[in-house]
Amino acid sequence: MMIVGQVSDLTPGEGRTYVVNGRQIAVFLLQDGSVRATDAVCPHRGGPLADGQVDEAVVVCPLHQYGFRLDTGECTSPEIEAIRVYQAEVRGDAICVDA
Predict the structure, then answer these.
(1) How far is CA 79 from the centre of its chain?
(2) Which domain holds residue 64?
(3) What would the DSSP string read from start to end of 30-80?
(4) What is the rounded CA–CA span in Å between residue 61 and residue 24?
(5) Count of domains for the chain
(6) Which pTM does this prediction carry?
(7) Tens digit of each residue's pLDDT (9 = 90 or more) over 45-99
(8) Residues 37, 96: contact at Cβ < 8 Å?
């Protein structure tokens, strides 16, 4: 796992994009204090997923409102391909992602 940032840099319910091993990863701080990590780019039209609305289970792309499950990466609309999800955790104030 690699440290990508600090939890104190995030706001609960919002995301931020980090570059991990040359790949753009969106990290979301959930209301319960846990973090989730996914690809940062929507496969539909390249929307910035870190800017999307997020709840405990889904992030919604801000461009065309396609939802992606934070646990599997599957899109709520079957015609759109899934995104990758990554293991992420908080260690102290550090956000760690396995990409």
Answers:
(1) 20
(2) 2-98
(3) -TTS-EEEEESB-TTT--BGGGSEE-SSEEE-TTT--EEETTT--BSSTTS
(4) 15
(5) 1
(6) 0.93
(7) 899 999 999 998 999 999 999 999 999 999 999 999 999 999 999 999 999 999 8
(8) no
